[in-house]
Amino acid sequence: MITAREARSATVPPREEWPELPPHTEAGALLTDVVLATFRLNARLMEAAQGMAAEGGLTAAWWQVLGGILDQPRTVSEIGRRMGVTRQGVLRVADLLVERGLAEYRPNPAHRRANLLACTEAGYWAIRQISLAQRPFADRIGAELGADELRSALTTMRRFIGVLEADQRNDD
Questions:
Q1: How many angstroms separate the CA atoms of 123 and 33, rounded?
Q2: Contact call for residues 106 and 123 (beta carbons, < 8 A)
C-alpha cells in the first residue's frame, strides 16, 4: 500500500491499485460539507464584494488591503496576517494602490526596511463610496439571517480559524 505522499510524487497507477480511503467520522463528513459550503459562500461573497468595490473604483482585493489600513498604517506582512493572505499578494496589491494614489508608503520607525502602508484621502474616499453600497447590503442580508444566527456563525468561524491555525502550526 502506498502512502498519500508517495501517491503525489508517483505516476498515476491504475484505479484498482489506488489506496482505499479510510471511512469518515461523522465530524469529518460534516467538516467536509462545511468546507464545500464555505467555498460556495466565498464565491457568492466575492461576487458581491466585486460589485460593491466597483462603486469605489476598486477591486475586491484592493478593498481588502485598504481595509487592513483604515484604522492605522501597517506593514505589508501585518496586513497579510490580519487579512489571512500572503505577504506577496498584499505587496502586489499595495504597490498598485500606491501607484494609483489610494495608499502611500511611509517610513517605519520600528523597522527600517519594512515600510508602513497608509491610506490616502483618495483611498478613504473610495472606501466611503463602497460603504454607501455595503451598508444597505449588510443590513439586508443581515436582516434575513438575524443577529443571533450571525453571532453564532461568527463565534463558530473564529473557533474554526483558531483550530486550523493551531493545526497548521503543528504541521510546521
A1: 38
A2: no
Q: Which amino acid is at 111?
A: H
Nearest to 60 by CA among 42, 36, 75, 37: 42
Q: Do 55 and 132 meet the contact criterion of CB atoms below 8 Å apart?
A: yes
Residue 40, CB-side half-sphere exposure with 13 Å CA sphere: 6
Residue 154 included in any domain:
no
Q: Which domain holds residue 81?
A: 48-145
Q: What is the CATH number of the domain that holds 65?
A: 1.10.10.10
Q: In terms of Cα–Cα distance, which of 61, 54, 102 is closest to 85? A: 61
pTM across the whole model: 0.82
User: What type of residue sits at position 146?
Assistant: G
The model's pLDDT over 123-157, given as tens digits with 9 standing for 90+, comes to: 999 999 999 999 999 999 999 999 999 999 999 99
Query: What separation in angstroms does the CA of 114 have from each of 77, 107, 118, 132?
Result: 9, 8, 13, 33
Q: How many domains does one find in the chain? A: 1
Task: Decide if 16 is inside a domain.
Answer: no
Residue 161 lies in a domain: no
How many C-beta atoms surround the C-beta of residue 55 within 10 A? Answer: 16
